[in-house]
Amino acid sequence: MSGTSDGRILGGWLAPHPPHLVYAENPPQNEPRSSGGWEVLRWAYDECRAKLKAQRPDVIIVHSPHWQTTVGHDVLAVPKLKGLSVDPIFPHLFRYKFDLQVDVSLAESISEEARALGLTSKPMTNPSFRVDYGTITSLHMMNPDWDIPMVGISANNSPYFHDPKTAQNEMIKLGEATRIAIQKSGKRAVLAASNSLSHLHFTAEPNPDLPEDMSREHVFSHAQYEWDVRVINLLRAGKIFELMNILPDFMEEAVAEVKAGSLMWMLSAMEFPQLPAKLHGYGNVIGTGNAVMEWDLSEMHSRGTGSTQL
Amino acid sequence: MTLTFAALVPGLPHLLNPLAGSGHEALARAMTQIGDTLESKGVKRILYYSTQWLSVLGTMVQAQPSICGVHVDASWHQLGEIPFSFKVDSAFAEQMAAAATAAGFRTQAINYEGFPIDTGTIVADRLINRHGMATGMISSWLYAGYEDTVKFGRSLADALAADTTPTAVIAVSSLSGNYFPTDIDPREDHISSTEDDEWNQRIIALLSSGSFGAADLLIPTYAKTCRAEVGFKALAFLRGIGAAREQQGAKCLQYGAIHGTGAAVLQF
Q1: For residue A239, which of A276, A270, A265, A282 has the smallest C-alpha distance?
Q2: How far is the C-alpha of A23 from the C-alpha of A95, rounded, in Å?
Q3: Domain ranges of chain A
Q4: What number of other Cβ atoms are within 10 A of residue A262's Cβ?
Q5: In chain B, N or C: fewer CB atoms in 10 Å?
Q6: Per-residue DSSP letters for A110-159?
Q7: How many Å apart are CA B191 and CA B199, to the nearest integer?
Q8: Cβ contact (<8 Å) for A205 and B57?
Q9: CATH number, domain with residue B109
Q10: A166/B contact by beta carbon, under 8 A
């Protein structure tokens, strides 16, 4: 990577955000209680937690599809955000008391660099802002101790407003802006793309009396499963360009949540690493496909594999 | 029959502190007029159906008796904090949920501290319900089509008819949904395209003449062409619950733009 300072991206994680994962864990911040469930994905997040403990990054930057903004790619920029986040879709599972420490200087810098690249972006400076459950779930599952400052980036409506290519280009620029801001900050950052893969889901809980009934959990359809496996295999093989080619079809046919731009943002920030991503776990949550995957950029540098500007 | 009044209104936060003399101010004024009118008609309870409250696992009906707090819109956070305070008729919420469930619609009455109230409902309530009358809130089920939403509204009409409290139904929705993708000067706000403007006016004309059946037929094309908010299911709900009756035209108090989208205050 080129840059003007020694800030760098340590790695990136595909960090899906079904609130069921927090519910299943019974952390003190979340009011509803469960008897567990979705262990494969939660075990995968255990590996992420261990990695972050070892890496000790200065900041985790998360892009969440559930902070949707109509105008621009906004960035949380309040030093401390605290409150109760209730999932509007699954309020019986997720009522979480959050307490976030935001890296405001980096947040403002990302927004500034985004504007410099021609994007619309502004810092979110309202202390009463309620942080979305996607951001909270991904961050909790990655770092339940909440001892690493974060930056949250919104999902602009552009993927739903423009043609896929235009929207994709916006996310590529947002990734570039994020990378430049990190480099200038001198900080060591970990990125999190907070999205599921296939996103068709059941319209009713299979067992409303026991949401964590794993005997009723399965992928929405075999076609979705095949799409998820195809995408995961490309990522595991480091075939980023092949992935880019099939993403529009994946978004269309599997209603993939990557459409919100999180994955594209992260890959762009990491300069589209030609590096096999590590799959830590795949599982279904109310029918959706979810993978916890890691790109360790230090491995990329030690292996001598490259990254590419699109 | 306790359905006493109905209206379709916009629900974006630009209306709460509009610039003097702006189109936003005119829309806000029309909404306060709606509040005055429904009070003069003896309304004691307002039911909100907002297409900004989207539910996935069927429909939700708010049943928490008292809700207050400060809201910041996820998208328009720079417009500031919006204090809100609702008294909810929780008994009637349960009745609505039961009626809809009996009609085959998965519906749950919810009662959770901190459940996020959508911007549309809050904006409408701030402008219309200035004296704190009882309310109800009904979500827009994402997977209900236009016809299903008509049927869902119809299932609630029975609950309304069996209740004696004079009630207003307020549907909160934009018309055309094409936003400007960048920041604009609110003094220069206008409908984002001529095509959207023409479509909006065509739909308003049909509603004003009471040609609701004709409007129903056009809605799929309108929604697709102009990104009408959530398929313009707000009209479907009003149709189903008995607020928009053929040959009983609505009165358009104001039409304008909010960040490029279409907004109308229509009294039924």
Answers
A1: A276
A2: 9
A3: 8-303
A4: 29
A5: N
A6: HHHHHHHTT----EE--TTPPPPHHHHHHHHHH-TT--S-EEEEEEESHH
A7: 11
A8: yes
A9: 3.40.830.10
A10: no
> Beta partners for A102?
A150
Whether CATH 3.40.830.10 fits A8-303: yes
Cα torsion angle, A30, A70, A121, A6, sign: positive
Write out pLDDT tens, residues A2-57: 445 789 999 999 999 999 999 999 999 999 999 999 999 999 999 999 999 999 99
Task: Report whether B8 contacts B238 (CB < 8 A).
Answer: yes
Residue of B171, B190, B186 lying closest to B261 (CA atoms): B190
Compute the C-alpha angle A188/A190/A193, nearest 5°. 155
Q: Report pLDDT digits (tens) over B51-84.
A: 999 999 999 999 999 999 999 999 999 999 999 9
- Name, in order, each residue with C-beta under 8 angstroms of A30's C-beta and a sequence gap of 6 or more: A22, A23, A94, A95, A96, A97
pTM of structure: 0.94
Interface test with A, best of B73, B77, B224 (most A CBs within 10 A): B77
Whether A131 contacts A81, CB under 8 Å? yes
Q: How far apart are CA A224 and CA A227, in angstroms?
A: 5
- Residue A72, chain B, CB below 8 Å: the answer is yes
Number of domains in chain B: 1
Label residue A301 by pLDDT band (50, 70, 90).
low
User: What ipTM does this complex have?
Assistant: 0.92
Average pLDDT in chain A: 93
Which A residues 185-214 touch B at CB under 8 Å? 201, 203-205
Q: Where are the beta strands (DSSP E) in B91-210?
A: 107-110, 134-141, 167-172
Arithmetic mean of pLDDT, B126-133 = 97
Whether B76 and chain A come into contact, CB under 8 Å, resolves to yes
Range of the domain at B41: 3-267
